[in-house]
Sequence to fold (416 residues):
Amino acid sequence: MARHDIVVLGAGIVGICVALHLQKRGRAVVLLDRRGAAEETSFGNAGLIQREGVFPYGFPHDFGALLRYGLNRTIDAHYHPSALPRLAPFLWQYWHHSRPARHAEVARQYSKLIEHCVTEHEALIAESGAEAHVARGGWMKIFRTERERDRRFAEAEGWKMDFGVEHRKLDAKMLQEAEPFLAPVLAGALHWTQPIRALDPQGLALSYLKRFEALGGRFVQGNAATLQAEGEGWKLRTAQGPLEAGGAVVALGPWADVHTRALGYDLPLAVKRGYHMHYRAAGEAKLNLPVLDVERGYFMGPTRRGIRLTTGAEFALRDAIRTPVQLGRAEPIARDLFPLAERLDNEPWMGARPCTPDMLPIIGAAPKHKNLWFAFGHAHHGLTLGAVTGRLVAELVVGETPFVDPGPYSAARFGR
Ligand SMILES: Cc1cc2nc3c(=O)[nH]c(=O)nc-3n(C[C@H](O)[C@H](O)[C@H](O)COP(=O)(O)OP(=O)(O)OC[C@H]3O[C@@H](n4cnc5c(N)ncnc54)[C@H](O)[C@@H]3O)c2cc1C
Fold:
């Protein structure tokens, strides 16, 4: 039976980064997934490493927005009415944590992770030789009205002072010069200059995986459901035979709750699903930077495969039937803004963002078990925070002084 120091369950971007950081610290690590690496949520996200993402996406608190969302016709959010009874406890807590004062407190804790997101990825990109998978130069929020533009400009000034987030302000003319193929209907843009982006999020994750394997790490196929305590360690069945490990890290993204429940934890997790579709840019058209059409509620950016259009949050059960209505609503608006040619995928891709109601990820030692750690619940920012989480978990596992205080992210905050 193969014996390892640590098994990392889940080979999304979070699990891969955890495994790589542990292997770098001289541990014998096995990374396990039931599929290939980064084939689920980490496959098709929008690719942003969001240095500006200090305020995790909250639940709206103004009446107008609630009414719009209630009608279920917006582009940025959609819900399955049949799922609401099951989602209600989560949504209630999410609403509670999104109250302005509480949200500001959450942002202060969240920003301690976010502030390292670019530097931690840059370090892994350099040592993995993953340059070809990333682009620098940031991304832009674009505005249809001066009112929204000026409101966001003022918000950005605050984030610069409070969190060191850098930006440039573009009026309509500057934006037209920067992005000549966008229709001249915009009032300006907010350019976040620090973020970097993956041109192919799975490609970036696979580069990190290759580095992990080059350092001696093993990637195996198996089902996390076979995990069992064995003395002070763990055992599992894999396609390559039984496996034992001194410690285990759960990095199962949107499936984490299935397995933590089996271990006796009742964590309030839910998902926000999202879709993508790729398009060819028509003729000579070129989009230099990704853009979020703030008032319409969709995101569009250049990737290796074409222009990737991604959608906002769909509140539904993780495995419910796919309903890419937001994509259908966004596409004609995006086509009016930028000359998109034909769709490049047969079907929309769907992923499920693993969410907690207080918008903070769950990172750190499992409260009820020895030699078990958690690394999930990264919601809209799993790519952004993958490298930071990888380092933090590895430091906790091997007993180094953590570079970020892990206290706010502990599962113990849910007390169950
Ligand atoms: C439309 C969309 C756009 C997004 N854009 C961005 C963005 O621009 N920037 C950003 O930072 N984040 C973005 N995100 C969020 C980001 O994609 C996620 O937070 C991140 O991918 C989560 O990574 P993970 O490793 O936790 O989960 P996953 O990538 O889902 O990995 C979990 C792994 O667990 C495995 N697994 C599940 N069950 C088992 C089992 N029983 N046994 C073994 N293995 C199992 C799965 O196969 C999977 O590989 C976006 C998400 C969506 C949907």
In short: The first strand starts at residue 2 and ends at 9. The radius of gyration is 21 Å. The CA atoms of residues 157 and 167 lie 8 Å apart.
